[in-house]
Backbone:
């Protein structure tokens, strides 16, 4: 077998599209290659043996933007599955993305096992959480709410950014892959409700889709719920809760369900769909986006991918450089989950992702503390 991988141009799209449609049971609406969207094809002779889409994103990482290769679709035609074509496809896609400056890559797998050996590890979940609507009528001080108009879109985007930049993982929703503000924030919505904790200052929003009917089966779908403070969260939840008489169930898409379910009088929330967001580190320099406490001063050698590095933390900054030797060994999962602060050294050791030299475990845990991991876009 000799697999050849090359970018697929818009004019070749027609020939490749049926493979996508059959893989995902999609309608005939899959996007062709275009700005910020790179489609790759692996071939064995003339036959297409794998296809992949890589998108140009940026990820918020505690106030910094990390160039990100978003893998938005992978398929191997049925007759070629199990043929080992994914590895060369990913190598070509990620080499090109790295050349462009990408330091991490993200994806939502149909099955996590597909991407684990390619270096991806889970860092966040995007959940559709179903809750009895009447429970959203929560107590407490509430910020005033109002319906957003078209002119409010920049303020909605600003509220999203204020939320997203305080996390590790959310996309920046600007740049080449997000040319349309309205599409980024109001797609498939009936309305967007704004909270203003001080006059003229948008401090949260709920983008919702009313759905059909008003019987026992009617569902209110909240595409996004962002609140920058508690009164805004209370105000938005109450506005949503006011639908209880017509939509007995509300489904909220969220990566931080604990923040709002914690306000309900009774937690009867149920996850009805879950997207697991996985990330791969393309460049250890991504660790320089961590902002450890200024008091943390440490030199931390580590091995990853048979290479030795030393991470230096000092005055709230981090640098990573190659070094001659190191014994503390991180596998891909340990590297990703440390970077995103989703697993501590003890857990990673217990599961075999981190081996040797435990002397620096506490310093690594301190280094990885900080903004929580979250994601808001499904792609
Ligand atoms: C998923 C898909 C791309 C895998 O292609 P493939 O040629 O069968 O994959 P490979 O044989 O190269 O396997 C790569 C790895 O994925 C694992 N894998 C493959 N299918 C899997 C599945 N359904 N669940 C869990 N792991 C799976 C393999 O065990 C292998 O892991 P390993 O390297 O640890 O041994 C292919 O089955 C497909 O196109 N499916 C339909 C569309 C789809 O689900 N695409 C993925 C979208 S995220």
Residues:
């Amino acid at each position: 077998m000799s697999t050849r991988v090359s970018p697929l141009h818009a004019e070749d799209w027609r020939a490749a599209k049926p493979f996508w449609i059959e893989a995902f049971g999609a309608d005939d609406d899959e996007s062709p290659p275009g700005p910020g969207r790179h489609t790759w094809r692996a071939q064995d002779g003339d036959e297409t043996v794998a296809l992949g889409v890589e998108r140009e994103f940026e990820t918020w990482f505690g106030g910094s933007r990390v160039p990100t290769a978003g893998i938005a679709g992978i398929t191997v035609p049925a007759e070629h599955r199990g043929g080992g074509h994914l590895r060369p496809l990913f190598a070509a896609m990620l080499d090109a993305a790295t050349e462009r400056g990408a330091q991490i890559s993200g994806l939502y797998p149909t099955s996590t096992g597909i991407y684990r050996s390619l270096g991806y590890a889970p860092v966040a979940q995007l959940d559709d959480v179903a809750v009895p609507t009447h429970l959203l009528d929560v107590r407490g001080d509430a910020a005033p709410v109002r319906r957003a108009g078209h002119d409010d879109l920049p303020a909605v985007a600003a509220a999203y950014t204020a939320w997203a930049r305080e996390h590790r993982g959310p996309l920046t929703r600007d740049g080449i892959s997000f040319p349309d503000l309205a599409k980024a924030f109001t797609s498939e919505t009936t309305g967007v409700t704004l909270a203003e904790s001080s006059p003229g200052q948008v401090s949260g929003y709920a983008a919702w889709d009313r759905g059909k009917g008003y019987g026992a089966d009617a569902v209110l779908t909240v595409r996004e719920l962002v609140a920058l403070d508690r009164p805004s969260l209370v105000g938005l939840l109450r506005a949503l809760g006011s639908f209880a008489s017509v939509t007995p169930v509300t489904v909220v898409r969220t990566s931080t369900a604990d923040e709002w379910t914690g306000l309900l009088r009774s937690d009867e929330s149920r996850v009805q769909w879950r997207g697991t967001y996985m990330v791969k580190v393309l460049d250890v320099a991504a660790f320089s986006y961590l902002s450890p406490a200024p008091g943390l001063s440490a030199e931390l050698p580590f091995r990853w991918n048979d290479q030795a590095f030393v991470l230096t933390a000092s005055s709230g900054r981090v640098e990573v450089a190659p070094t001659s030797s190191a014994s503390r060994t991180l596998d891909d999962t340990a590297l990703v989950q440390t970077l995103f602060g989703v697993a501590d050294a003890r857990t990673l050791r217990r599961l075999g992702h981190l081996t040797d030299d435990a002397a620096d475990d506490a310093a690594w845990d301190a280094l990885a503390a900080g903004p929580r991991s979250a994601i808001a876009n499904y792609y």
